[in-house]
Design goal:
Elements (H helix, E strand, L loop, with lengths): L3 E5 L3 H12 L3 E6 L10 E4 L1 H9 L3 H7 L1 E3 L2 E4 L5 E5 L5 E5 H8 L8 E3 L14 E4 L6 H7 L6 E13 L5 E5 L3 E8 L3 E9 H7 L5 H8 L5 H7 L8 E7 L7 E2 L2 E3 L2 H4 L8 H18 L3 H30 L5 H12 L3
Parallel strand pairs: 1-2, 1-9, 2-8, 5-11, 9-16
Antiparallel strand pairs: 3-7, 4-7, 5-6, 10-13, 10-14, 11-12, 12-13, 15-16
Helix pairs in contact: 1-10, 2-10, 10-11
The structure holds flavin-adenine dinucleotide.
The site of flavin-adenine dinucleotide has 32 residues, from helix 1, strand 2, strand 3, strand 10 and helix 9.
Length: about 350
């Protein structure tokens, strides 16, 4: 089965699905409201399931060659002492968002992407056998299909992230009172950093000061690797955003319209899984359509394979968001994390 597909959103999900459908002979049009691929962005951890999806797209080796191998992570207290280590059996790779986009958007996509095309009303889309909402957490397609009940849920935490020059060789996440700070390697001799802070903790520090002063105030007296990163942060390049996740949907499709990635199951970034689950969606949807007798059967199979699985990851990510930014029972959470880390 290979027909005409319209995809809204040329993010990780839209580009991955576009490639997979084109390889199966589909006529693909991807509408993206931005005028070009993003040129800045921080690191994304590609877990083994995402590497398998990238392999299915024929792109895994490019990520292995150009990204940074990650063999685990250390969880630290603010004084720098470790309380847990994650050492997964299979390695992951860290790759910056712009590099991942560059790998996904090569000649295999041809001129399928229509840049600067903002689709807010799916009713105005041209006719197609398949319409895909790959339009991210605020998906207009999801809202149009499912209404206000599909609005994202606030997590009452704020993320800050950025990239600084210089290399580090390991991944660390430091957990303190209502806030965390993460440091990871990134390709090109750069270091990726992120912080996640509870709203109430932020309110105690945020007196209209700059984001750099705010981070300095939030992480003052934490171990020296954090101050070393913060001393290099360029204020103009800090990405600051309130965090949300998605309430569970009863179905990822309606008629011939289907959702993938954050549009279907946006999650807290604390497990580092959103982009990974998005890549798995794209490959699963293409495979389900390839082996089904009709678009409807393909969408039903995709929904059966992916919805509960992705919603489980949303729940785990929400739990990690709460645990990592907890203000009470922090010794207990460290013990819990130590146990959980053994199963990663
Ligand atoms: C702070 C933070 C850290 C993260 N860290 C990680 C990590 O380490 N590992 C990981 O796996 N994931 C991580 N994620 C999650 C990851 O970024 C997302 O899950 C992933 O980007 C989802 O891809 P997507 O293609 O579904 O959506 P998006 O990447 O959001 O792409 C959606 C696209 O649709 C376009 N669009 C939106 N509306 C319209 C419209 N009306 N018309 C046309 N185009 C439209 C947008 O411009 C965009 O290009 C993190 C997220 C955050 C916020």
């Amino acid at each position: 089965m290979a027909e005409r597909a319209i995809i809204v959103g040329a993010g990780i999900g839209g580009l991955a699905l576009g490639r997979a459908l084109k390889a199966d002979g589909w006529d693909v049009e991807i509408h993206e409201r931005a005028s070009q691929l993003p040129t800045t962005g921080t690191a994304l951890g590609m877990w083994p399931e995402a590497m398998e999806a990238l392999d299915a797209l024929g792109l895994g080796d490019q990520v292995r060659d150009r990204g940074v191998l990650q063999r685990g992570a250390q969880f630290l207290r603010p004084d720098g002492t470790a309380f847990a280590h994650v050492r997964p059996d299979n390695p992951s790779y860290l790759v910056s968002r712009p590099l991942l986009y560059e790998i996904l958007h090569d000649e295999a996509l041809g001129d399928s992407v229509v840049w600067g095309s903002d689709i807010n009303d799916p009713g105005k889309l041209p006719a197609a056998d398949l319409i895909v909402g790959a339009d991210g957490i605020n998906s207009p397609l999801r809202q149009a299909g499912l209404g206000p009940k599909a609005a994202p849920r606030p997590l009452r935490t704020v993320a800050f992230r950025g990239v600084v020059p210089g290399s580090v060789d390991s991944v660390t996440e430091t957990w303190g009172d209502g806030r965390i700070f993460g440091i990871t390697p990134q390709e090109g001799a750069t270091t990726n950093w992120f912080a996640c802070v509870r709203h109430d903790v932020l309110a105690d520090h945020d007196n209209g000061i700059s984001n750099t002063d705010l981070l300095g105030s939030l992480f003052r007296d934490w171990h020296p690797a954090i101050s070393a990163v913060l001393s290099k942060v360029d204020a103009g390049q800090i990405d600051r955003r309130n965090l949300y996740d998605a309430a569970p949907l009863g179905s990822f499709f309606q008629d011939n319209m289907v959702l993938i990635g954050d549009a279907a199951h946006a999650m807290a970034p604390n497990a580092g899984r959103g982009a990974c689950e998005t890549l798995v969606d794209a490959v699963d949807l293409a495979t389900s359509l390839r082996s089904a007798g009709s678009v409807h059967d393909g969408l039903q199979n995709y929904d059966r394979h992916r919805r509960r699985q992705a919603q489980r990851v949303v729940r785990v990510s929400r739990l990690l968001n709460r645990m990592s930014t907890a203000r009470r029972f922090t010794t207990l959470r460290h013990q819990m994390m130590n146990v959980l880390a053994r199963f990663a």
